[in-house]
Specification:
Strand content of chain B: 15-25%
Low-confidence stretches of chain A: none
Structural class of chain B: alpha/beta
Helix content of chain A: over 70%
Structural class of chain A: mainly alpha
Distance between the termini of chain A: 9 Å
Distance between the termini of chain B: 45 Å
Radius of gyration of chain A: 24 Å
Oligomer: heterodimer
Shape of chain A: globular
Mean pLDDT of chain A: 86
Strand content of chain A: under 5%
Low-confidence stretches of chain B: 339-375
Largest sheet of chain A: none
Amino acid sequence: MLRYIFRRLGFLLLTLLFTSIIIFVVTQLLPGDVARVILGREAGEAALQALRQKLGLNDPWPVQYFHWLGNFITGDWGDSFSTRSAIFPMVMGRLRNSLMLGAVILIISVPIAVALGVIAGLNENKFSDNLISITSLSVVGLPEFVTGLVLIQIFAFKLKWLPANSSIRPETTFADALPSLILPALTATLVLLAYIARLTRAGVVEELKQQYVRTADLKGLPYQVVVIKHVLRNALLPTITVIAISCGWLISGLIVIENVFNYPGLGRLIVFAIDRRDLPMLQAVVMLTVFGYAVANLLADLLYATINPKIRLG
Amino acid sequence: MLPEVISPAPIVKIKSLTVAYRYGNAWLDAVRDVSLQIEPGQTYGLVGESGSGKTTLAMAMMRYLGENGKVREGQVEFDGRNLLSLSQNEMRQIWGASMSLVPQNPLSSLNPTIRIGEQLAEILRHHQGLHRAQAQARSLELLQSVRLPDPQRVAESYPHQISGGMQQRVLIAMALSTSPRLLVLDEPTTSLDVTTQASILDLFRDLIKSHQAAVLYVTHNLGVVAQICDRVAVLYAGELVEDAPLADLFSRPLHPYTLGLLNSVPRVGLNKNQAQLQSIPGQIPALGMRPAGCVFEPRCQFAIEICRSRPPLFTPTTQHHVRCYRWEEIDRGELSSKVDLKEEFLIQRPTITLDIKEQIPTASTIEKPSRETGRGETPTLSINHLTIHYDVRRSLAEFITRQPVAKVKAVEDVNLTIQGGKTVGLVGESGSGKTSLARAVVGLTERTGGDIGLLGLALPSKLSKRNKDTLRHLQMVFQNPEEALNPYLTVGASLRRPLIVLLGYSPSKADAEAKKLLAAVRLPIDYVERMPWQLSGGEKQRVAIARAFASHPDLLIADEPVSSLDVSVQASILNLLNQLQAEYGSALLFISHDLAVVSYLSDEIAVIYLGHLMEVARADDLFEPPYHPYTEALLSAIPLVQPEAMQTIIRLEGDVPSPMEVPTGCPFHTRCPCCLGDICVQHTPPWRIDERTGKKSFCHIPLDELSQLQKRILPAIE
């Protein structure tokens, strides 16, 4: 098992390294002169040359790459082209926000979706199953900006229970931010619901067909014990891994939701950086995103290996 | 006045049970009007082929039919209680406590994510109210009672970490943990090797006796029934056709189906030259296609007009029931199973056909069929020093640290020849390498060492490097007929392909030839237009055989061709193979795990274990001492289809080792009852040749020593 962990960590590092090379090469290939962008259009040739020298832009690419990589690892992510302020603290702030939102989404969506999936699976093709399946499928088709706006209409404007705008400040604590997080979390839940519930349902239906369920039944064990202790343990394996992988999406993929609710997360930061051609910012956020996905994947694999004795013990 | 003898009430009373399954909107009967009784302490065998309804009957009795099954009529009484009136919750009090099941497939019947010890302990906690520590201790005791070595380790393991034989023992322990009054065994040894099966059957006998449980043993294997059961019921297409005490059923079968079944089972030691297997023409009717009259009538050679109406259950004796109008004639011997047998299912044989019940002359006095060729000619197939090793994939870490690649040693230094027109049988259990060998000869698997020659020409290792001429002369029939035919081609197209590709026939000539081939395998000519999914398993296998013989191969390799077929169908396929081989003059390499089937067809038999040949002998000689110790154990393990036959009992310890860890020296030494010690562990055995019979044995013990130690294992076939 330990060997398995080390091997996966090794792959993680390799992935990140490979990604960093790709990001670096892509940004190098983009047209445009970095020095000019920084100094502006009126800058003279001498000033440009001096800056290029200073930034190390005349060095061969491998040198520039390692220079950049070294800086990145030590946390020196440079300054943003558009805001002229340090990138690192800004990105970290956004990361915190995204993590908060992600956590709330998980807390709300996972229990509901799994419960619905289990109920649907246990009652295959009966009324409750059809109801759950149809409802979740019809909801997942709706774009997030539609559901988000509808939720705002209902809960913010009509009922006035929750704020319509979720633009929290960097200083806001988690507890205070909570009311602002609920509506965006609900919107994301509606997306995840169908996904997780259907996967859980499929897992339950599949496991119920297995012969060990017959063995458990014919041991005379009560129905609840058979379902919870025997069936769910196996049925939820794929669901758990998928949820872990979704975490990657939850961190930097919520662009539309963040936009609808004006939430200062990483998704909006990416759009911001692209809009302004802010390359250092973009590099930083992309690296972080890839890191997030890779770590989520790693956690999913490790979780699966821990739960599934066939992989854990070989 | 004599006191009334009060016999104990039966544990199970099934009366006129009819069970149906839902297909679309209709409910089709799978079991029709079956009645039987199981007495306390009695082992009751339920015998039938696939589609007979035996599992359905057992599950209906246990009230464990799925959503799409229901009991339409009848009663089931267990220990005096009417089971059909109980709810699922009430049944849960009976399940695991007074009624238990040992299922067929041990690995899939165990929860893969819960430890074995816990899966045992939960039964005890639930039914016997033991608390954690008590349940744990008792679990260990139970694991010991089923003769598992190192119960502590097994209790802490997960199901996939122990072997199939051990998994089945765990399931037996679970079923017997609460000393149930009724034990239902649903084909419990079908998925196990024959040597493993033998020790499990021994275990059953002992445990059943000590627990005094009543047992319902569901199986298709007549040999197992003969060794274990007290009473047997024969099911065919959902109906009970015969029900009798064990000895009566085997010595005095009264139903044509029972007769047919007993005559179609290959017996170990019975060769095609001594007697021939009877097959039952046709196939079991599908659900919903069953005749309203006698359900066996369409296939019955003794059917007469009255059989169109359903026969009642006659009682020749109070113990023996049979559902056939003509049972008296059968009893008196007026209806012989040879008479009126449709011509097309008989094989024209150059030698005299002998009735199995008559005295069998010894092998040496039988005239061998004329197709035997002299030993001096070039052998059709010569395999020399064949070795096949598969590499196990290494992880990145192992690659970097340059650890040697682990190998699966599937086949090791095998030498085998097959003369023209002869049949060589290759017998082995799982992991023996027999399929790898077959695939290497055909070219589907690359060999690691050695060479293979077809009629003197060296065969390249890879199939892609062989020319069409070679392919023409070397054909194969595979195990699973479901997968062997292209589902998108009609039967005719499948048959025409080798004719056009390998023989260069024109389409019209190929078409004519394809029809001839269908006739040769006794299938109607209009099958050329049919698609594979419209054919039964046996019919598909016939088409596969026809396709294999289409190019008139010099060598045909058959890899377990009948293993997935029902017993009654097996016989006809074996006879067909035999006949076509004689007609076309092909040599045949017949591979199987079933020694009875192999002994029927083969002229010579090779026994393979963990990639090494252990013994090669003429078919008749293999069954006489001196035996190689492994052959002796194999012969002793096979359950004979003769209830009173006494076999010498030799049991092997443990299960077959994995081919990844082949033991050093003689690979059999870890389980060999005659192991001499260090010499067997460290040194590869020599080949010892018996001068009189030409038998070759891979053993350190000289043959004459073995003859002194061993007695003939198989009784004479009566």
